[in-house]
Amino acid sequence: MQFDYDDQNIFAKILRGEIPNNTVFESDHALAFRDINPQAPVHVLVIPKGPYMTLDHFARDASADEQVGFMAAVAEVCRLEGVEPGFRAVANAREDGVQDVPHYHLHILAGRNLGPMLAR
Ligand code: DGP
Predict the structure, then answer these.
(1) How far is the CA of 47 from the centre of ligand 1 (A)?
(2) Domains of the chain by range and CATH?
(3) Whole-angstrom Cα distance, residue 70 to residue 106?
(4) 105, 48 Cβ separation under 8 angstroms
(5) How far does the centroid of ligand 1 lie from the alpha carbon of residue 63, in Å?
(6) pLDDT of residue 38
(7) What is the mean pLDDT of each run of 10 residues along the chain (120 residues)?
(8) Which of 2, 16, 47, 49 is most buried, with most CB under 10 Å away?
């Protein structure tokens, strides 16, 4: 699989500080910020700082430090957002996954019962 990262995507612009965001957490390897169109009371996007398009791209090519750093950011977001009653983590990828922004991001959704996983 060939991954051609587009550095003009909106999350690349957020990482460069060209577009503002509502930051929840930031580390050397990851940025977490509130989704502009929240689908639940808590809707945070966690993104790696490196140029990865999708979860499978990140899992294949990111270094161990980047992967550990990313998951540590997920843990920190869960702690900060108080998701004890439960949450959902979603990573959309490519066309069939209906991914709009081609920079890997994990949606963290919480704050209400999220219902069935997929709408029919
Ligand atoms: P996906 O379909 O998985 O690629 O989701 C992309 C999400 O990104 C979608 O829920 C809306 C959010 N989003 C798009 N543009 C912006 C933006 O400029 N700022 C923020 N905070 N979120 C954005």
Answers:
(1) 11
(2) 12-110 (3.30.428.10)
(3) 10
(4) no
(5) 25
(6) 98
(7) 96 98 98 98 98 98 98 98 98 98 98 91
(8) 47
Element at 106 (helix H, strand E): strand 106-110
Q: Tokens 């997929």 — which residue? A: 118
Active site residue 29: no
Pocket of ligand 1 (CB under 6 A): 10, 19, 21, 33-37, 92, 98-101
Q: Which residues contact 69 (CB under 8 A, 6 or more apart)?
A: 27, 28, 29, 30, 48
Among 14, 37, 44, 103, residue to substitute to test ligand 1 (most atoms within 8 Å of Cβ)? 37
SS3 track for 25-65: EECCCEEEEECCCCCCCEEEEEEECCCCCCHHHHHHHCCHH
